[in-house]
Amino acid sequence: MKTLHSALILMPFVxxxxxxxxxxxxxxxxxxxxEQEFQKTKALIESNxxxxxxxxxxxxxxxxxxxxxxEGSITVTDSLVxxxxxxxxxxxxxxxxxxxxxxxxxxMKDRKIKIENRKRKKSVIYRFSITGQNDTYQxxxxxxxGGNCSVNLNSNNRAPISYSGQVTPLAEDVKAE
Length: 177
Hints:
Strands 4-3-2-1-9-8-7-6-5 form a 9-stranded antiparallel β-sheet, with helices on one face. It contains 1 helix and 9 strands. It is of the alpha+beta class. A hairpin with a 4-residue loop joins strand 6 (122-131) and strand 7. Mean pLDDT is 80; it is low at 4-8 and 13-17. The chain has a single domain, classed as Lipocalin.
């Protein structure tokens, strides 16, 4: 009888311990999955063959300008980069009639890839500069595991602007030029 009574007293503690151990393995599984996503994203960025497709535009003041249905992208193919991005903001010095979006197509300069370790997550920082027809742009892409990306663009002739969107692999038919 004493063993049955002792077993009944110990049973809640055994159950409590087993549930907490199961919770740790669930956290470990999630951490392993996040690390796997990060390694996949890192490999994509280091391949220098990816597409950024925007879904939100933010002005210098931080206002979301997505309601204007902007479309834009940046395509990185080895050392070549091609971009077409909308621009909403102040232009300081542009030739007459050149007040539209931001466009560039050429060889990137000063490319840097850095791994950023934050408190709870890692990200890949991809920086480069590119010269457009009448301007030079410094672009910083902050890419999270899974491909979510924020882009900050600084220009010599325009106010800074930010974008958010998704980074994906290039289609197989896109070749380096």
